[in-house]
Design a protein that fits this description.
Number of strands of chain D: 10
Largest sheet of chain D: 5 strands, antiparallel
Strand order of the largest sheet of chain D: 3-2-1-9-10
CATH superfamily of the largest domain in chain D: Cytochrome-c3 Hydrogenase, chain B
Shape of chain B: globular
Chains: A alpha/beta, B mainly alpha, C alpha/beta, D alpha+beta
Number of helices of chain B: 13
Oligomer: heterotetramer
Number of domains of chain B: 1
Structural class of chain B: mainly alpha
Number of domains of chain D: 2
Strand content of chain B: under 5%
Radius of gyration of chain B: 19 Å
CATH class of the largest domain in chain D: Mainly Alpha
Number of helices of chain D: 14
Strand content of chain D: 15-25%
CATH topology of the largest domain in chain D: Cytochrome-c3 Hydrogenase, chain B
Order of helices and strands of chain D: EEEHHHHHEEHHHHHHEEEHHEEH
Helix content of chain B: over 70%
Order of helices and strands of chain B: HHHHHHHHHHHHH
Structural class of chain D: alpha+beta
């Protein structure tokens, strides 16, 4: 099941390094070239029936940002498509709202916590940080260190 | 003069009404708790609540109209107490009967509701204002059948005086049977009226009608709480006086009878919440709007006809 | 006047109305506070009633650590309450920040924002503990009024 | 009537789940609504990066007090997978047992809250009274009523003795009886049906489009359940049904939850019958090899997702949590549009937004004057109850045994 899906993606997108994918039971972790990501998601949605976007994970691995789109289909297969974004202000990625309409909050979270600008995301309140949060502070970046006084900021003694 | 003062302040006026309304609040809350499988409050709970509220700080919001904000609860309580003076307690005559006291009592009973509306209005908080308007709207839905049902027996008796009505039915007890529909309507719409004074959530009177009282605290809140409790007693006493005019010679026995009658009505009101089960939505809607009001109208018609033909 | 003072203290002890505020808790303590109202615990036996408006309440029951976003609201609610008023911190997080200590959006315990009269630890505090907390708070009040 | 802007919220607990709503009202109807979430953001994902894997079990358990076991299970699954350890069968069974008990406690709680929101206080009291049966069982098994601390890396911390199993069977019997009673009284009661049906409509297509999950999705006729589709632990060994309903509204969500309670009782009986012997834990190394893992778990509110990235040290590089309510939040605005203000509390409550029972403040702003006023949740609920009472709907008249 897992290999079948991987093969179909490889056939459709020859530039995807399908052999480097990590495959486990019901799980596929696959890196996709940055420019192909939206197209690949669209292909998975339309052709491979990955109709459910579980979530989008954004992370800072110390060298660059990684964006992981976790999509699933009804037989339990969970496909993770990865793209990267370099440390280069401003960091801009396209939205996937045209494919997965439930993505609003996941993309807004990327904007709020990692400072990645999502192009095409409708205007809205920042999420999930407080209203009085200072501009340009993105807590999930590895370079960010908490500097709040009182409770927050100090490393827990545990 | 001194006697009048005694009547107004102590018995059957302010103090007595206050005390008895606390007792009935306790009965109501306890019954409600028992219906919910809980133990419920202790007997002195309403008294402790009132004393505590009276000694708490009273905050008047900056935006509120100070004078009216403070005056409204007093007017409400005064109106309820005044209404009580015209309800018979220890004999078939009330303290100060006069020709049209039934009308006056009904008017007095409308004042608290107007006060709730004004309380919301003078709080100058948008939501309290909306809540006030809704209180007023809702009130009319229940009070129209309630008032019509209370006026029907008066029409039959041919007098607007409570004492007169009582005396009439004392002489012609058979006609009481004629008024049974009106009695039922009264109980149902009084339940509606008192439910709006949230009857269903034991001590949530303070949050009445979506925040009318939200801004009230301390003494002023205590006054409103007393108003709500007293209103229940006055309405029950009024219904008892008009529909169950059973009086004996002894004043003390009459007084005990009064307590029993009010207790029975409060008990029925409380119990009905639990046992009026089979009301489905459509039945309820028809009942409130299509059945209740026409029946009370019909009752009035019947009473007029009976009055015109038989009692001529 | 001694009798009147005694009466007032008695009334205050017998009728603690609570208002519940969640300043960033995980839900557990909130459920347990609510649980105290339900048939098994039934705090109405002791005259405790939950109120929606802080204007009506005597005891502010706080649960959870104070998050940056909620701090201002917590202070407003506290200021809206009429005197005499008391604050109870329910749960370990409300007492000290607990497991959330060190999170960037957390200020710390409730006492970082408003004065606290009674701490009820536990994760979550059991309904029995919450009831006991209120009772202890009231006996504290009674003792201080008597000593006055 | 002029349009009024009613911002609703924001006070709400749980890591991902505090919400507030801006409602544009036209008279009694909601013309437009906007969901704002993120109020009680505590920064747990960042905090998790500075704690060890074992410490994180207890931190993440406190994401939400109602579905704490779901979050900790979901997290330990990722770590166990990364460490490559095989968790003993007995531990998996006990995990599933606690998970199902938690589902019962959560659905019971929801039933009470739903009663509260529609002005049916007696139901609230009854449901919470029966919920105490589950709480006692959970306390007996784990030592705590909520935030059980049952999971640890590589297994569970406490055993289930045969005497406990007997008590659980007995309690499940009682609960089943009560649930069947509720299902008769509530689902059979026409007032409840009329009050809840057609409210918060979410068609099947919309439910899929907005990526909803859990009972919300299943009440729109989509049988998606992680326990069956992507089972973890011992769920493949169990026989149970995925409950769906075609009402597509709040009534459907109630039906799904009540029926899921009955399925949970079935599952618990099977778990107790099948419970194998064996150890409770295996050793998990402090340092987890580098890698990544995503895990899913069917929490009472829907699909819970945890993603863990390890870098070879004793602390994770990134922990990502997607709580079920976040997935359902996007659909709320759609469900509210066109409905009545009086229905707003029950529609929001119907997604079971990790409901803390605190009052959430509501700000009412007059669009013309810009005047703002606070309105708390209780007031709105009360308003709603009265609005319906005016329509002749009063639940306080329904007697419960």
């Amino acid at each position: 099941m897992e290999n079948e899906v991987l093969q179909k993606i490889a056939e459709r997108f020859p530039s995807v390094a399908a052999e480097q994918a990590v495959v486990k039971h019901h799980r596929i972790y696959l890196s996709v070239p940055n420019e192909l990501l939206v197209e690949a998601l669209s292909f998975c949605y339309e052709e491979l029936n990955f109709r459910h976007l579980c979530t989008i994970t954004g992370l800072d691995n110390g060298k660059e940002y990684e964006l992981l789109y976790h999509i699933s289909k009804d037989d339990g297969l969970l496909l993770t498509l990865k793209r990267t974004a370099p440390y280069q202000e401003p960091v801009v990625i396209p939205t996937v709202l045209s494919i997965y309409q439930g993505a609003t909050f996941y993309e807004r979270e990327l904007e709020g916590l990692l400072g990645i600008k999502v192009e095409g995301l409708p205007e809205g309140r920042q999420y999930p940080l407080p209203d009085n949060w200072p501009q340009g502070e993105y807590p999930l970046r590895k370079s960010w260190k908490p500097k709040q006084a009182g409770g927050a900021g100090q490393e827990a003694s545990v | 003069m001194a006697l009048d003062l005694f009547y107004i302040v102590i018995f059957p006026g302010f103090l007595f009404l206050g005390a008895i309304s606390l007792v009935f609040e306790y009965i109501d809350r306890k019954l409600y708790a028992r219906l919910q499988n809980r133990i419920g409050p202790r007997w002195y709970q309403p008294l402790a609540d009132i004393i505590k509220l009276l000694t708490k700080e009273t905050i008047i919001p900056k935006e509120a109209d100070r004078r009216f904000f403070a005056a409204v609860p007093m007017v409400a309580l005064a109106a309820t107490t005044a209404a009580f003076l015209y309800v018979p307690i220890w004999s078939s005559r009330s303290l100060m009967p006069f020709a049209s006291d039934l009308i006056v009592v009904l008017y007095f009973l409308t004042i608290p509701t107007l006060c709730f509306f004004l309380a919301g209005w003078f709080s100058s908080s948008l939501f309290a204002q909306i809540g006030g308007v809704r209180a007023l709207t809702q009130l009319f839905a229940y009070e129209v059948p309630l008032y019509m049902a209370l006026l029907a027996p008066a029409l039959l008796a041919g007098t607007w005086s409570i004492s007169g009505i009582t005396a009439f039915y004392h002489q012609h007890p058979i006609y009481l049977l004629l008024n049974i529909p009106a009695f039922c309507i009264c109980i149902i719409s009084a339940q509606g009226k008192l439910e709006r004074v949230p009857f269903d959530i034991p001590d949530a009177e303070t949050e009445i009608v979506g925040g009318t009282f939200t801004e009230y605290s301390g003494r002023l809140l205590a006054l409103f709480k007393m108003t709500l409790n007293s209103e229940m007693v006055v309405v029950a006493a009024l219904i008892a006086a008009i529909f169950i005019p059973v009086f004996v010679q002894s004043a003390i026995l009459n007084f005990l009878l009064f307590l029993v009658k009010v207790f029975v009505i409060v008990f029925v009101l409380a119990l009905m919440r639990a046992s009026f089960a089979r009301f489905r939505i459509d039945q309820m809607i028809s009942f409130c709007w299509k059945v209740l009001a026409p029946i009370s109208l019909a009752q009035i018609l019947v009473d007029i006809i009976v009055r015109g033909i038989i009692l001529k | 006047m001694k009798v009147v003072d005694k009466l007032i203290t008695w009334a205050r002890c017998k009728s603690p109305w609570i208002v519940h505020f969640n300043s960033g808790a995980c839900n557990a303590c909130d459920i347990e506070v609510l649980c105290a109202l339900t048939p098994r615990y039934d705090v109405e036996r002791f005259g405790m009633v939950q109120k929606g408006s802080p204007r009506h309440a005597d005891v502010l029951v706080c649960s959870g650590p104070v998050s940056l976003q909620q701090r201002e609201r917590l202070v407003t609610v506290y200021e809206q309450m009429p005197e005499p008023k008391f604050v109870m911190a329910v749960g370990t997080c409300a007492c000290s920040g607990g497991v959330f200590d060190g999170c960037y959006c957390i200020e710390g315990g409730v006492d970082q924002a408003i004065p606290v009269d009674m701490y009820v630890p536990g994760c979550p505090a059991r309904p029995e503990a919450i009831i006991d907390g209120v009772v202890k708070l009231l006996s504290k009040l009674e003792a201080s009024e008597d000593g006055k | 009537m002029s349009k009024i802007m009613v911002p609703l919220g924001p006070q709400h607990p749980a890591l991902e789940e505090p919400e507030s709503f801006n409602l544009l009202l036209e008279g009694e109807r909601v013309a437009a609504s906007q969901v704002c979430i993120g109020y009680n953001h505590r920064g747990m994902e960042k905090a998790a990066e500075s704690r060890t894997y074992l410490q994180n079990v207890y931190l993440l358990e406190r994401i939400c007090g109602i579905c704490s076991h779901s979050h900790s299970t979901c997290y330990v699954q990722t770590v166990e997978d990364l460490a490559g350890v095989e968790v003993p069968q007995r531990a998996l069974y006990i995990r599933a047992l606690i998970g199902e008990l938690e589902r019962i406690h959560s659905h019971m709680l929801w039933l009470g809250i739903a009663g509260h929101e529609i002005g049916f206080m007696t139901l609230f009291m009854y449901a919470w009274k029966d919920r105490e049966i589950v709480m006692d069982i959970l306390e007996m098994l784990t030592g705590n009523r909520i935030n059980y601390g049952m999971n640890t890396l590589g297994g569970v911390r406490r055993d289930v003795t045969p005497e406990m199993a007997d008590k659980i069977r007995e309690a499940v019997g009682q609960l089943q009886e009560r649930t069947e009673y509720y299902s008769r009284v509530i689902l059979g009661e026409e007032t409840v049906y009329l009050r809840l049906s057609g409210v918060g409509k979410l068609s099947k297509a919309d439910a899929l489009r907005f990526d909803t999950t859990g009972p919300v999705l299943r009440a729109s006729g989509v049988g998606r359940d992680v326990r069956r589709d992507d089972p973890n632990g011992i769920y493949p060994n169990l026989d149970f049904q995925v409950i769906t309903d075609d009402h597509e509204d709040v009534y459907g969500r109630t039906v799904v939850r009540v029926k899921e309670l009955l399925e949970s009782y079935k599952i618990i009986r099977q778990i107790l019958d099948q419970l194998p012997d064996g150890p409770l834990t295996v050793k998990v190394p402090n340092r987890i090899p580098a890698g990544e893992c995503i895990s899913r778990y069917e929490a009472p509110r829907g699909e819970d997702i945890h993603y863990t990235r390890s870098n070879g040290t004793d602390k994770p590089d990134r922990v990502k949590v997607r709580a079920p309510t976040l997935a359902n939040s996007a659909a709320i605005a759609h469900m509210l549009d066109g409905g009545y203000l009086a229905d707003v509390p029950i529609v929001i409550a119907a997604i079971d937004p990790c409901f803390s029972c605190t009052d959430r403040m509501v700000r009412v702003t007059d669009a013309n004057s810009g005047q703002a006023q606070s309105m708390d949740w209780e007031s709105l609920r009360r308003y709603s109850a009265q609005w319906y009472r005016k329509q002749g709907m009063d639940f306080s008249r329904i007697p419960l045994r």
